[in-house]
Amino acid sequence: MYFGRGVRPSPTSTGNNMNIDELEEILASYKITKSTQKCQELENKSIPFMLTTFRELIKNEVPPTQQEFISFFKTKYPDLKLKGIISRLKRSYLSYVREHHLGFLLNKHFKKVVYNEKLDLLGIDYVVYYKKRKFNIHAFVNTEGGRYWREIKNDRHKFYGIHLDMPMDLNSGKRVGKIILYNDSHILKLKSEMDNIIRKQIDKSRSLDRKNSSKN
Questions:
Q1: Distance (Å, whole) CA 175 – CA 179
Q2: What residues have CB less than 8 Å from 171, skipping those under 6 apart?
Q3: Residue 103 confidence (pLDDT)
Q4: Distance (Å, rounded) from C-alpha 179 to C-alpha 31?
Q5: Using an 8 Å Cβ cutoff, are 69 and 89 in contact?
Q6: What is the Cα–Cα distance from 112 to 130, expressed in whole angstroms?
Q7: Which CA distances in Å does 14 have to 18, 58, 90?
Q8: HSE (CB half, 13 Å, CA atoms) of 192?
Q9: Is the dihedral of CA 151, 56, 36, 82 positive or negative?
Q10: What sections of the chain are H helices per DSSP?
């Protein structure tokens, strides 16, 4: 399953839920082929069905291999023949695996992590509850392409509440086999940002209380 339709249960090494170490052990064995070319016109074009195809292939929380993903996509959409699409699929695959793994990592550090398709349609990757507050998380690789698509989200959606970006520099990620993933240090940085926001909210609330009490 892909994080369920709501709160993803805490993964354990028993039962049907895989833990993050087991997932990384599987990912370490995956063969990854790098994309050899970029078609700039295609890079900035939204291609439908890629993410839904990836999710469709996840079985028992295990994502497909890169080749399985590409082969299935080509078979399912034989008429979608675009120059550079294989290279685009290869790069998109790595993003999807990284996001899938991030769900396990977030669940390791937080008690309540939410993912569902409704959130995805709203342009939100995950919702994390921390110290009685709701945080909307946006994960992306800190590259020109990653930042471009993050800005596209801002253009397509109206965001409400607290939103936090999780840009990842590839040289700071955890290398598992041929894939670079988020690690514990990224979560510690995220928690620090959350604590700063909470602290400012508390300070603002106290300041308003003092002003109100002085008027009475």
A1: 6
A2: none
A3: 97
A4: 9
A5: yes
A6: 8
A7: 8, 19, 32
A8: 7
A9: negative
A10: 20-27, 40-43, 50-56, 66-76, 85-109, 117-121, 144-156, 184-215
Q: Which two tokens stand for residue 170?
A: 């590839």
What is the number of residues in the chain?
216
| Contact (CB, 8 A) for 175 and 183 | no
Side-chain half-sphere exposure of 73, counting CA atoms within 13 A: 27
The sheet with strand 112-115 has its strands ordered as 6-7, 112-115, 126-130, 133-141, 162-168
CB 137 within 8 Å of CB 202: no
State the average pLDDT over residues 163-184.
96
Kindly report the number of other CB atoms within 10 A of residue 106's CB atom: 27
pLDDT of residue 49: 83
Beta bridge partners of residue 130, listed in sequence order: 133
| Residue keyed to tokens 């700071």 | 172
- In the block, tokens 């965001």 appear at 159
Cα 129 from Cα 113, distance rounded (Å): 7
Residue 69 amino acid letter: F
Give the chain's mean pLDDT.
85
Model confidence over 32-75: pLDDT tens digits? 998 766 655 555 556 768 888 999 999 999 999 999 999 999 99
* Cα–Cα distance, 9 to 14 (Å, whole number): 13
